[in-house]
Design goal:
Blueprint: E1 26-29, E2 33-38, E3 45-49, E4 56-58, E5 64-69, E6 76-86, E7 89-100, E8 106-107, E9 113-116, E10 121-128, E11 136-140, E12 146-152, E13 155-160, E14 166-175, E15 180-190, H1 192-198
Parallel strand pairs: 1-7, 9-15
Antiparallel strand pairs: 2-5, 3-6, 4-5, 6-7, 8-10, 10-13, 11-14, 12-13, 14-15
Length: 203
């Protein structure tokens, strides 16, 4: 009796239609590099349409939309559709891809300020961003006793009671994460003694 080896190959055939995970709408700025948008689907043939020029579908390292560099010519709103198909049907998902130039924020310079030590002050400073991007605020060299508070997206409030006389070069900076705007102004805090001297009085 002589034993022999036999091999058995089992092929599992799915009769399910393909599936694709939806992609969220997105906004990117001109100048952004190395964008990769992964595509998640069940096995099948994938087709991507509606891409901006310079963006391609690539499956060399897993299905993805690749854009090495977002050029100015790619600016616009693009309606991208991904379709996956197998022998049992097709599935598709679409998303909107906005590529835009960034507009730097703008901050209004309030000019030179003069206040009196020990007396409460309030100063509002406005800022704008044409793209309505979220913005962060930084500041430096406020007179001691003063602080800055964000009232809303466009208005900042410098307030408090200055405690130290002197001249301070106040800098307020607004950033949208991509560009910054700043204003610098001189803030003089006078003491009561300064006022008396200016008025020709003695203490």
């Amino acid at each position: 009796f002589e034993a022999s080896e036999a091999s058995l190959t089992i092929t599992v055939v799915s009769d399910d239609a393909p599936e694709i995970r939806p992609l969220p709408d997105r906004v990117d700025l001109v100048g952004t590099t190395n964008i990769a948008i992964p595509i998640e689907t069940t096995p099948g043939s994938i087709e991507v349409t509606g891409l901006p020029p310079g963006a391609v579908y690539d499956d060399s390292e897993g299905p993805a939309i690749i854009a090495p560099f977002l050029r100015t010519t790619m600016a616009g709103v693009w309606h991208v559709t991904i379709t996956v198909s197998n022998g049992n049907g097709t599935a598709s998902a679409s998303f909107t891809w906005q590529i835009r130039e960034n507009t730097a924020p703008f901050i209004t310079n309030p000019g030179s300020q003069r206040s009196l030590a020990g007396r409460a002050v309030e100063l509002r400073i406005t800022n704008q961003d044409a793209d309505n991007d979220p913005r962060s605020i930084t500041f430096a060299a406020l007179p001691p006793g003063l602080s800055i508070r964000v009232l809303n997206q466009t208005t900042l409030l410098i307030h408090g009671v200055p405690t130290q006389a002197g001249t301070f070069n106040v800098v307020v900076q607004v950033s949208d994460g991509f560009a910054t705007a700043d204003c610098e102004s001189e803030w003089t805090v006078a003491s009561w003694r300064d006022l008396r001297v200016t008025a020709g009085l003695t203490m």
